[in-house]
Amino acid sequence: MREDLLELFYWFHRHPELSYEEFGTTEKIREVLNGMGVGLLPVGLETGLVAEVRGALPGPVQALRCDIDALPIAEQSGLSYASETPGKMHACGHDFHITAGLGAIGLLLENRERLCGSVRVFFQPAEESSLGALKVLEKEEAMAGVERIWGFHADPTNPVGTFGIREGSVTAAVDRFVITVTGRGCHGAHPDDGVDPIPAAAAMVQAFQTIVTRNINPFHPALISVTRLEAGNTWNVIPQTAQLEGTVRTMEKADRELFERRVREIAERTAAAYGAAASVEWIPGPPAVCNDRGMAEFAEKKAKEQGFLVVPEEQSLGGDDFSFYMEKVPGCYVKVGTGVGPTIHQPDFKVDPRAIEVGSRYLAGVLLG
Prior knowledge:
Blueprint: H1 3-14, H2 23-36, E1 39-40, E2 49-54, E3 57-67, H3 94-110, E4 116-124, H4 132-137, H5 140-143, E5 146-155, E6 162-165, E7 168-171, E8 173-182, E9 186-187, H6 197-215, E10 222-231, E11 237-238, E12 241-250, H7 253-273, E13 277-284, E14 289-291, H8 293-305, E15 309-312, H9 322-326, E16 331-337, H10 354-368
Parallel strand pairs: 3-4, 3-5, 5-16, 6-15
Antiparallel strand pairs: 1-2, 2-4, 6-16, 7-14, 8-12, 8-13, 9-11, 10-12
Helix pairs in contact: 1-3, 3-10, 6-7
């Protein structure tokens, strides 16, 4: 492996920054790209940047997304180059994404005479917020002329040299809800004087699961999780309100629409049955990542040509804001084996550095065509 790439990977891993705070990361990427003589598009992002490699031959504009933010997790990996920032780490492999993207750019520069058209590389902020891609898409010049986009992600379920690829949906649409149940507070010893919102909220938690078991096609991946339920502030008072918060994950557009309608119906009607009222705030996130068939087939072909193993990409009800780009142009999102080990978003997650060279070579091969 090129030592410069390895040292860069160590640097990014030691200096994690959270969503919308990637100022040092951005400057480091800028420094590396300037040293390589790569042009930057003046898109005016606060964090993150857009680089462009122009080929010697005519052809289309392609894009590659590399996300750059870290997570608020205290690292417990035991690595010699572990995070130097307390409570923050690259627990999702975005340090690997940055480094492999820079490695791919280096290979494109070395093979510029073979490159048809140009490659625009988005070093994107705030993927972990689920909305960082929208920051790039706000800058119209970033996507101007782009005909297709490639994305990739570290995969700790497969060894280095293995790629997960499939056509169709690979990650879920991510939506969030906040439900406020309003009753009438009273003394805990006299519940008949008020309307208790807690039983209504508890009934909703149970009833929501019937959306999956009774409304969604059993062959469609989907889930709803209530992740927060709060009510009251003392032991002898029935509160005025209770609040539920959670997430819905779906692969199919029709299921996503159905879920929102049913959550609202169940919340409002269950509350009414208990004599309370419910208001539902629905916060849509990114849609499902759905790989273009032709691009997936091409991605698999290029992996096999380079001697790599290809396995069916595991579908996940996790999400990725890469899908926002795919609403604009066809795209393909590939999983890159980074060594079998702890899963992403865990404090002991780690990437086998050997995956950097593999990922760089693969990405460059795909982009060169």
